[in-house]
Amino acid sequence: MDYTLNIHGRLLELDKPRVMGILNVTPDSFYAGSRKQMEREIASRALQIVEEGGTIIDVGACSTRPGADETTEAEEMNRLRFGLDIIHRELPDAILSVDTFRPDVARMAVEEFGAGIINDVSEGASPAIFRMVVQLRVPYVLTSVQPTLREMLLSFAEKVQKLRDLGAKDIILDPGFGFGKTLEQNYRLLNELEKLSVMELPLLVGISRKSMIYKLLGITPEEALNGTTVLNTLSLMKGASILRVHDVKEAVECCKLTRLLNDNPLK
Description:
This protein has helices spanning 39-51, 73-90, 103-113, 127-136, 149-166, 183-191, 211-217, 225-237, 248-263, and strands at 4-7, 10-13, 18-24, 56-60, 95-99, 117-120, 140-143, 171-174, 204-205, 242-245. By secondary structure, it is an alpha/beta fold.
């Protein structure tokens, strides 16, 4: 199924898989290669994402890794203002996604810097985030923390209906690999990923270099690119519309190859 996102009047077609490149303006994200805090590092990473074929730049200022120190709302805003200003200056036409669960942070990012997508990993823990994204009229990524497909579908159905009732137009579903799930549950969900198509909404998969890869293989996040590519390929074959990744070039290649297979299945 083909989807379209309305990003401030600009239509983003999802008739082919898109890549969302990760840019963390944090000191403590689990993958060291994604941490960018200096101005030149942030500018360089943003340009790299676009040059390597990324469609969306996802900017995070609050680490969601297990055990991370809590970031205050003021600190998250300060980090984002610093990073988004640099990115907007370098790439004024780039599609920016902001990884946050806080309504006021979302408003700041959209109103001050033109962010076009809000990526919420909290499963809408605060009802205010729903009202905020509807008010801002931007696409919203709803991430699940549920451990099984059945629980996920029930939760998604309830929350999508709440969003629709408020007037939300563009909703993207993220099964939330690594959030509230054991290693075994992550793989069971991945194996059933195509069943989420019943929701008739675009699917974002963020599996890049996560612990479900490196813990299973007995390696580090820095060594997990090959495993990431394997699971990204599987996700695309099972219906993912957007890949959220650290390694943009490799993900773009993955999209090109699997698109041919999906469009022309081998007989």
